[in-house]
Amino acid sequence: MATRKLGRMPSLRNRVEDTLSAHRNELVSLLSRYVSQGKGILQPHTLLDEIDNVFAEDETRESLINGPFGEVIKAAEEAIILPPFVAIAVRPRPGVWEFVRVNVFELSVEQLTVSEYLSFKEDLVDER
Questions:
Q1: What confidence score (pLDDT) does residue 5 get?
Q2: For 97-126, what is each residue's pLDDT tens digit?
Q3: Which end of the chain is less enclosed by CB atoms within 10 A, N or C?
């Protein structure tokens, strides 16, 4: 009888970093487009619409949408834009929330805790 080994799912941070490595120029364009809209909170439909607006090429668009970054965007509940950062709240399944923040200028990615994400969201409101 073959033994099955349970593997760990890559963290949200790792998935975003891997996609940044594979599609650096494309994601810089997309994330810069989010940041160019100014401070605010983007809803899921806006995140997906921008992918369609930025990538007219089917090949690039399809590889992003069907890859790990596409899974992140499809499961995103909101994104907080506070230049140069884009923080994304992701709900991959009911009861599970993950938060990641990307520095668009440095292309650095960090996983956030709930309190860090909410603090970042408060910074957005306090600066308005």
A1: 61
A2: 999 999 999 999 999 999 999 999 999 988
A3: N
> Cis link prior to 84 (omega < 30° from 0)?
yes
The torsion defined by the Cα of 94, 85, 37 and 91, in degrees rounded to 10, comes to: 0
Element at 25 (helix H, strand E):
helix 24-36
Could you give the angle at which helices 12-22 and 24-36 cross, rounded to 10 degrees?
A: 110
**For residue 100, which phi and psi values (nearest 5 degrees)?**
-140, 145
Cα angle for residues 40, 30, 61 (degrees, 5° grid): 130
Burial class for 38, CB neighbours closer than 10 Å (0-12, 13-18, 19+): exposed
DSSP 83: T
Tell me the torsion sign for CA atoms 115, 120, 31, 109.
negative
Question: Does the pLDDT of residue 65 top 60, yes or no?
Answer: yes
The architecture (CATH level 2) of 12-127 comes to: Roll (3.10)
- Domain chopping of the chain, boundaries: 12-127
Cα distance between residue 89 and residue 97, in whole Å: 7
